[in-house]
Structure formats: structure tokens, C-alpha cells
Design brief:
alpha+beta, four-stranded antiparallel beta sheet, 1 helix, globular
Amino acid sequence: MIRLTLCFVFAGALASCLTACESAPPAGRPDATTWWDYPLVTVIEDLRDDIRYGEAVVTRGEDRPMTVVVPLRSLDDEDYVSVRYKFQFFDEARRPVEPQMSWRVIQLEPQAQEFVTGQATDTTAVDWRLVIRRAK
């Protein structure tokens, strides 16, 4: 009887171990937004209600790195809005062009339009994105 009980305990422990070994670790969920649907300009955190951005002007030549200029405007009537921004540039294979730009800070005057500019570090950049967040 004891021998039979020990066999069941051992079998249960073995089955539990094998089940744990077979199950894969939890994975993240794939992003349903494709590369082509991802926005070129992303305004994050609580800044979405405080600023607006306009149409980007992109220049690029065979012998010149891509340059992007994006107009920003504060919707505040009285106070300056301080924002951080960073351009990201990508090559034909959608890999980041290194080195990537670091965060920059700009003060937007009330109701005034300012322009942010980013330039790729080499001529392989064919695509870009801009991330904007509140400066702290």
C-alpha cells in the first residue's frame, strides 16, 4: 500500500514537472499596427490636448542625408509649453539608422508656431518618425 502510494506521488510529481517543462514562457502580444500604419508623428502622455503639429517637409538627396521639419503649435493662451522631441530615421530594411538622435527640448510660446528639425546621420535613411512628449 505504501509502495503504491509512493508510486502515485512520484508519478504525479513527474507529470507535473513534464507539464511545466513543455509549456512555453508567456510571450508578449504582437502589435496589430503594421509598419505602414504606424503614425509618423506620435504625441504621448498628457500633451495631446496642448499642442498640434502640421505637415512635415522632408528633403533628401543622393548625396545629402534626409532632413525633416515639422511645425508645432501650442494651444495654450498664456503659458509656455515645454516639450521633448526626438526624430528616428530608418533605412530601406526598416532598421534604425545609427546613431539615433537624442532628446531635444523646446519651449513653445502661447499660440505661436515653432519648427522642429531632425537630420539623419547618413544618406541611407529613407523613412522617419517623430516622438513628442512633455519635458519634465
